[in-house]
Structure formats: structure tokens, C-alpha cells
Amino acid sequence: MLSDPENCARLAIKPLALSTALRCDASRWKEYTTHNAFKRLCYIGDCLRDGTLQCIILPINISNLHWAIFEVDALQQEIRYGDSLDWTCPSVDIDTIHCWLKQHNFKPFHKAISMPHRAQHDSYSCGVAALNTICHAVSQTPLFADDTKDILCMEEFLVLAYSHLEKSELLGETNDSSSDTDLDIEIMDANAPVVAITPEPSSDLNLSTSTMEAETSTTKAKVHLDLHMSDEDGNGGLFKFFQKIPHEQYLKKVNIPFTWEIEHMNMMLIFCM
What we know:
Layout: H1 5-8, E1 11-13, H2 16-22, H3 26-29, H4 39-50, E2 55-62, E3 66-73, E4 78-82, H5 91-102, E5 110-111, H6 126-139, H7 149-174, E6 184-187, H8 209-217, E7 222-225, H9 247-254, H10 259-272
Parallel strand pairs: 1-2, 4-5, 6-7
Antiparallel strand pairs: 2-3, 3-4
């Protein structure tokens, strides 16, 4: 089982760049060992061959329409596929994976049963369903369900948001706050009036016109984010993709902790024991 610590140490979850490299044209594949596009792919193949890695999981995009997951298990010599729409496993990609493995002296792998996953009942949840398929394979996270898809979307959004905030904080510690690359963002309060702030004229009357123009051109603009919405806004943009529920039902759901909150609490309990 992948969730066992010993197996997880030899498991790698790879980004989309890996499947992009696998889909390089035939002319590039003739230069597999020398072409820069295969540098990472070649390294991973060597790791599977020598046992440093036993299994890799990678996302794949199908026809620019849909997200699914491949699992390549070198220990069991199997290729598994997880697809929330239960489309037929793309044979072209299977052949490409076999071509890649052959470069590392593997015999063709068996196509095993599908990775455990759940079906989506809409046209837009494949991304979060694919992430959930990976999480379930690695840590036995509960499988995706149609009635919890919006909560899963919000969880993934928070993960992305927190990672960007942490990165911003790190950059803020290393960069000068007055750098021209910084961007000031102000979130508007509902009760606060919008005030346009203009830079005060310089008190030095001897500044030349060119100097004043140069200073004005480098003045940073402040971006205002209005987080309030009207009833009409709820039917357009990204809102149209999200399920609308009564406020009372929302209050019941909002008290359910996120998966990452439960995992964090469990880690804290283990640490304190």
C-alpha cells in the first residue's frame, strides 16, 4: 500500500512537465539520452530501474479537455489509470510510457485495474477529482464525492493561497519594501469611503521638469480589490460553476474541519504525546 511509510519513501508525484516530455515527437525520442527535454525523464527512469523509486504518479491532460492520472508501478510492473469520467485509457499514452520504460531496459508493464477514484457528475470537477485520486492513493484520503466537490475546491484554493502568501512573506523579508517590483494591494472595507490619494508636490522648487517627470513615472499605483458582490454577480463569472446553497445549510457545513486541519491536529497530538 502506498500509504505505508516504507513505500512512500520510494514514491514520487510528478508535475505535468513529465507527461509533456513523454508526449514529445518521434524525432526527439531518437535523441532520448542526449536531448535536454528528456533530462528529468531519463533521471526518473534510472531511479525506477535501480529501485531508488518504485512508483510514480503523474497527471495527464486529455485533448485539452480533461484531467486524469497515471500510476507507473515498477515493483508490480503495472500501469494504472484513474479517470473521474471513466473514459477509456488512452492507448497512445500507454504506448509512450512503454517506449520510455524500454529505454531503461524494462519489459512492457501490465495494464492493471483502475486507480481507486469516484465519478464526477459535471463538466468541470476533473481537476479536483484528479488531485483527490492522488491523495487517496498516497494517504487514503476519502474519495471525491459530488456533494463535497465544492468543499474540496475550496481546500485546494486555500492550499494555493497559503503557498502564495508564504512565498510573499519570504520575498518581503529578502526584498526592499521600496522595490519597484512590489505591488501595493488594498482590500476595500464595505463601510470605508474610497479615497483617491495623489502624491504631494515636491517642496524643492529647484527640481527640473525632467526630474519631476521621472519621479512621477516611477510612482507605484495602488490596486483596490472590491470583495463585495451584488445579486447579479452571483450568476456570472466563476460563480456560475459553484453550487448555491441556503445560508443555514452553509453554516452547518462550515463547521466541518478541512482535511488539512484534521491532519495538522493529528500531527500536533502525536508531537505532544
